Task: structure prediction
Amino acid sequence: MSENWAICVGINRYDNIKPLAYARQDAEAIADFFSKAAGFKGVYSFAEDAPPIAADFGQSLQSSPTFINLRRFLRVRFEERFLQPSDNIWFFFAGHGKRVREQDYLLPLDVDPGNVEETGIPVRYVVERLRRSGAENVILLLDACRNEGSRDGQGAGLQKIKGTVTLSSCSAAEFSYEIEELSHGAFTYGLLEALQIQGKSSCATVERLDNYLQTRVPEICRLYGKPVQTPCTFAEPLSKRNFILLPAAARAEDIAALKIDAFQAETIDDFLLAEQLWWRILAVDPADMDARAGIKRVGEALRDRAKKNPWWQTITRRQVLTSAGGGLAMAGGIAGWRAWNAMGGLRPKAFERLTEFVIVETVDARGDPQPIARRKISYFVEQIGQNARMELSLLPGGDFPMGSAIGEFPNKMSERLRASPMRVRPFAISRTAVSQKQWLAVQDLHPEIVDRAISTDPSSFKGDNLPVETVSWQDATEFCSRLSAITGRLYRLPTEAEWEYACRAGSTTAFHFPPTLTDSLANYCGTGGAVCGTSFTREVSSLDYDGVKYPDGGYENGPSGGFLGKTTPVRSYPPNAFGLFQMHGNVWEHCLDNWAPDLDRLPDDGGAFEVGGTDLRVLRGGAWSHNPALCRSASRDRMAEATSGWEGRVGFRPVCELNGE
Result:
């Protein structure tokens, strides 16, 4: 039989936000049901004044739901696998939630409401940590649409996360209500009712539980004089709707539906999903012969697949790091050359150093063209299959002043000039953002997953020579890992220092052109405002961005420009003195680093800034939809590593480590 484990968090009192009345009672009631009526193997409860949580080793863990306590628990308890794939891990949260930049956050009691991205707990981070337990089945119960005192529908719970079942307390644009007469939130009260139903009407599956809540919660609100509140359920993949939540209450038809899903998964060679479904059936009925045969059949298929693939198509980045005994952050796809060799990798063929004279265009402070210059660059070509190639400029390395000069608008604290120069080692960087043609070519040559599955066609604007976009930091690092496996060279995302060094190409002004920007030099929004356009049909145009107003379409004394409203091919505008195209505008570009509040915290040697407790990663360069001030060499932004950002706006360009070549 499978095991069930749960984490229950309930927060009434907040340090910096209006308190709630019944969130803690909700969590306590759910925890009581899990531990007593449902017989869960382990239940962890977080609430103010709750007793400490016993750790497997060392001191007990604090249970007050602060940012540090919650992050530490998720890190320590789920660092090692302790469950089986057929087991279930449940996460219940009652409290405030907030949606920021299309990312859901759960708000701990000490959250800073003005800085949710750095003081909230990303829902994706919760899921990623829970999956480390070894359980394939993650169920989120989020009564977290309680934003600023009321339970606001713009809170957390609307984000779809693949491989996860999420039940959220209300739909978009609705409020979630607490019922004084019941001493519970309407959603949790309905949820407790549903979980305790026995017999033919039981809510043993995701679908039946969803159907019950869709009817019952609005009814509860009507009975107690509250407006409509409609829970919503996300199940990714769709077969999760047949998932059996409570095996003891399952019916024969529930098992039959799961069997159909398992057989269908096998027919499309999705053996991992099929294995998970067969194990789930066996957990409900240990004597089921179809499940036993299915598990055996799927296991043989997976072993046959493994035999056909050499080690470098299946090895994980963590295994490379472990075998090598060290190196830089493996989450970013970095390992030293010795790490690659230690795993038996073959040394790649030395690249051919090529040279080219590039025409460098510049303008004056008003945007008027100045005499052109010719600069000699060195680069090499990485052939990717028959039809794609990547050109990489060879940069010499050295010291440079990193950050915005004094008086450079908008003069944000996070961008201010470092107290000491930054030094970078020689490296190679792609002359363009990764194109859709390159993205597909790498996946054609290396379809096997290194660390995560990625879409073959994620981009919103289609075209072989357009940049691949709407990709997350995790997607970008997976691409780099696959490119490394194909070529035998070490590809990764650039550190933030490497990116700015490459962008500036020796300049110290706002842009490498250098003092201003015109729409003949870059693709940006030159008609005024901080951001222009839509994202997934939603209007996102705004004069403000990150607390700063950007009313003008031009930068400083430069002219206003146009607005194309889309990406352009990756070589559409003039290169800089290093031969790199479109470092300003077109698409934001992922960097390896975690977000740092200021540049002085970055390592002096140009390495990546890596810090625990946050999944925010750095973006550089601006995009087609952003004001020119947001496309400067020193402009910085950040985004959670698992998200792909606004539609059509985020891409990347890889770096190749030279290792003495």
In short: The two ends are 56 Å apart (CA to CA). Residues 109 and 387 are 54 Å apart (CA to CA). Residues 146-155, 310-346 have pLDDT under 50 and may be disordered.
